[in-house]
Inverse folding.
């Protein structure tokens, strides 16, 4: 290893190839996340177009309302426990996921894990930015109907209006991300609650239009046998856990900023079991009501909002879902690749440079093409999911069973 550099960030014998300011342990006044900040982070992750569609889809498995609710409770309870497990060492020692991975995987193994997690984040960062750009396009067409003419010309299978809206969202997000983790914390403290306000308003509007008595919360026409119901509930539980699979690996990127372990656990409990179930209930009411109001079930909240016969309601709804998508992009798709890329070349790349590289690569993915290919999405999720899950198991088993929750932090940087 190289000798210690003059700036070792408080780590004795630190190798400059393994450390920079963003990868060094977070201590003292830099631990600024309260339980509310962790709670708000989970709201930002769940309250998205993808989260909305996912929650609604669980009710299409043929299960009754109480069966879906039971599956949600069990699944999210499992996620809550797993997040507490993976978050504890990072909270205690202030280290991000790429550094924590060195404990059980070694430096090269941790680099591999970081690259895999980074690729997943970059791809979904592009996809979520594309989803947000569609909401921006809706706003543009509301105020400037003539802009529809821009949809006649396309480049790389995306029309001119789409390109403009996508690049706008790409740049706007980058402005926030480049201000660092404290700015990110403040932004997500706002995102989750803001989405709740609009979701409650949307649910109230749906109930008013459809009539409470006419709502049927069983969204599927399937009638399952006892054995089929058991299998479907098991599938729903696994789907809930899978939805949070990527964050299960790098939750330490956020828990390292929690003031105490209790703040992390309270934030997880409020943000996962409580928040997820409440959000799912709102989603199923809105989705069920959409079938009564529009004649068919709509699982895309942006589409529901666009059908409201009030320009300012459409504006409010679209802006809210843009904010929601930015929130999940921060939590699930930006922070991890930024750290992961910085981890590869700490001497030359910090968190902000890593984020810029991740953002540029997200455009190169051409996410609108990716979204149009369900098979590509399925293969991508399956392949990378099969790689990420064992890494989580190895890290948790090593820390709790082999290391007995004791690690030498200085050794992780030398």
């Amino acid at each position: 290893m190289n000798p210690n550099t003059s700036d070792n960030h408080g780590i004795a014998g630190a190798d400059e190839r393994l450390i920079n300011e963003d990868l060094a342990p977070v201590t003292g006044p830099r631990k600024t996340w309260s339980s509310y900040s962790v709670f708000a982070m989970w709201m930002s992750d769940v309250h998205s177009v993808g989260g909305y569609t996912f929650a609604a889809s669980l009710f299409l498995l043929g299960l009754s309302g109480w069966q879906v609710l039971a599956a949600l409770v069990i699944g999210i309870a499992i996620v809550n426990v797993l997040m507490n497990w993976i978050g504890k060492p990072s909270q205690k020692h202030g280290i991000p996921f790429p550094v924590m991975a060195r404990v059980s995987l070694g430096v090269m193994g941790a680099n591999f894990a970081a690259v895999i997690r980074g690729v997943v984040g970059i791809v979904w960062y592009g996809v979520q930015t594309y989803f947000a750009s569609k909401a921006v396009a809706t706003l543009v067409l509301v105020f400037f109907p003539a802009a529809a003419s821009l949809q006649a010309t396309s480049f790389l299978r995306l029309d001119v209006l789409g390109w403009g809206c996508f690049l706008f969202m790409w740049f706007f997000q980058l402005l926030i991300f480049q201000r660092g983790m404290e700015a990110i914390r403040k932004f997500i403290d706002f995102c989750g609650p803001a989405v709740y306000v609009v979701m409650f308003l949307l649910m109230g509007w749906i109930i008013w239009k459809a009539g409470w008595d006419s709502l049927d919360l069983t969204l599927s026409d399937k009638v399952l046998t006892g054995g089929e119901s058991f299998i479907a509930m098991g599938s729903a539980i696994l789907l809930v856990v899978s939805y949070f699979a990527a964050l299960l690996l790098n939750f330490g990127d956020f828990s390292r900023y929690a003031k105490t372990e209790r703040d992390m656990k309270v934030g997880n409990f409020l943000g996962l079991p409580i928040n997820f179930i409440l959000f799912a209930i709102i989603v199923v009411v809105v989705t069920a009501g959409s079938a009564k109001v529009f004649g068919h079930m709509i699982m895309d909240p942006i589409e529901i909002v666009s059908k409201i016969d009030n320009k300012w309601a459409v504006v409010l709804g679209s802006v809210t879902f843009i904010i929601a998508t930015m929130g999940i992009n921060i939590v699930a798709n930006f922070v991890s690749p930024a750290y992961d890329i910085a981890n590869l070349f700490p001497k030359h790349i910090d968190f902000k440079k890593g984020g810029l590289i991740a953002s540029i690569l997200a455009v190169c993915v051409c996410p609108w093409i990716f979204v149009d290919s369900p098979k590509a999405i399925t293969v991508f999720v399956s392949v990378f999911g099969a790689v990420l899950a064992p890494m989580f198991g190895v890290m948790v088993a090593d820390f709790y069973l082999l290391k007995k929750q004791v690690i030498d932090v200085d050794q992780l940087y030398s």
